Amino acid sequence: MSRSSSPISRPLSSPQLLLSPPILQSSPQSPDVTLRRHGSIISSTFVPSSASLDGNFSYDRDGAFSTPTTPAFRAEMDRRDEEALLNPGHSHRRQSAKHYEQMDSWVRLAKVGTIKFLMTVFFGGSLCLCLRSWEGFHGSIPLSKYEVRIFNALTIALSICLGLNLLTSLKRYAVFLRWAILTKYWVPVEVFDLILGIDELTNVTKLLVLATPALDNKWLLGRSQPWRNSHPGYRQRFAIVCLIWLLINIGSQVLVASLSLFWPTEPYICPLTKYGSVAVADLSKWDVEEEGDHIYSSREAAWRFGLEAQSWSNFSADAPSPELSQLPGTPIYKGDGYFEYRFFYRNPDRPWSDYLQSNRNIKARTRCKEYDILHDGGAGGLTLGVSKKETRFVSIPKSGSGMILWQAMIGRNGNSTCGARCTQILVYQARGKDGSAKNVNKSSFWDCDSQVDQVTTFSAGASHPGIKPSDTFIYGTDRFAMLAAGAIAWTGYAESNWTDRQYRLNTQDSPWSPARVLNTTEVEEMIMRFSIGAIAAFDDHGLRYNIFINNRTCDQTSQKLEVKWKYIWIILGSIGAIQFSALCYLLIRANKSIVRDSSYFSVAMLLRPVLEFIDDVPGRMAMTGTEIKNHPRLRDKNIRYDYNEKDDGTKQVTICVEGEFRGHVKKRWPSGDYGG
Question: Where is region (Disordered) located (predicted)?
Fold first, then answer.
């Protein structure tokens, strides 16, 4: 038996046969088919395209073997015969056409555009996180020079990434939008070429120049006048759109560049309550020579400190704390019936340049009672009317015309006569006799109790972990308060055997002896002001006590980051709004036609119908783009990215020429199969 007519030498179920599809070989002279499988030869009779093989087996639709006697084989044969008879070109069209679905295209645009937008959000969030990390989440962080360099490198990198992502996002949106523009408008060939490259701002600028009527016949245009045969309203529309697009691109980059203006670095002020030691006023004694009951030097020191603070500024107790560098001394606060002072923490090495207001304060209060003078004997003494039936004689050590005498009374063993933290002060204002003293037209006398309260804390200042309420160096003693209460009258020594008192006679028209008749309120305020002023001056430059905190040190050359978050949020919000608006416009306008990729081969294939106009021009392959666009056959033509509908219902993607177009008038390409 011959090889071509011999039966199959091995069964179909042979493992060697099922390893791979058989290879069919035939010749024009013989209707036989030889099946080769890796060296094994199987012979069979050649059959037509119905796919039967020698009547013994055949290929079904999926490439599997079937016999002509099975129902599956007969059904497949009937389907293929019917398809071939009724629609002979169907198979070819399916291979040459691409299916376009509007919703699928919109989803792809939304996916790409949203990813770009989320990348902008990511870089903006990363920049904010970097700024907050270097600024500090719970307060300023000291930054060394090395850390500042790292911060600058990170912020520059993130700003560049943010700007580049924003720029590439807008360029990507422009690439998508150009097909909607080319689908909507009939434009000259040169303008068509510029719109294809609209992702480059140089092309947008050139298109703006070409679309501006005021620049006709100017040197910027040269000989190019592509709009002379176009729709009259297209030029202005394109000019406005190009200008807006340029402003958006340039403005977005300016916003990114301006971000760095709002995170300046400033010198870091080391917090006094965190590093090393802090100096506070030693409220246990007024003078270093004070020992035991020998407090004469402390009395004189209290008066001296009070006198030094007489020109210091007073503020309302409700007013915010002023800047100390602008004042002659530490601020003093006046309340309703009291004067208040707020202590400071100071750097032991730089007490007047490195300081911080603490949360400790102290108040001085005074209550005075004025008596009628029944007999004014001057230095000889006074007879006072205590009541209708009772009188009181008061000794006056010294007096002067129109002057005020301040007497601080001393009890037994040098103690107070009115309380532990109080000093009794007798005030005598003598009647003036001549000159400016004549304004004091009567003598007056007051008996006052001046008191200094305990040191307390308030919420406005800074606290310190190393302070204990039992620490007398910080919270003071009763003796310290008693001496402060009588500071206006202390001299530090007994004069003319007046051991029960010390006194000061102030000259006429001085701050503590004004040339006018005083009332009780004025006397009370003068005593309180002098007492609290003495404490303020003592806190400013008196004895010090150092509180140890830790062994940490702070580099005075450190810097801190001051982020202006208000402007950062405004700029980042503007950047996000610009890109989000562009994304929304893209999703609304771009999905009007098939959005082609940016491949040059794809664009070259699309432009083939246009280039066929100069297909017979010699040297066309060496022509420049300008020569092609200005060729007489193309220069006066307006074209559009479109499609043609054939008689058989297929759609052919092409570039249509105005005047020769005989196609659809739809604004949006319908879903379906498109070929070319």
Answer: 1-34
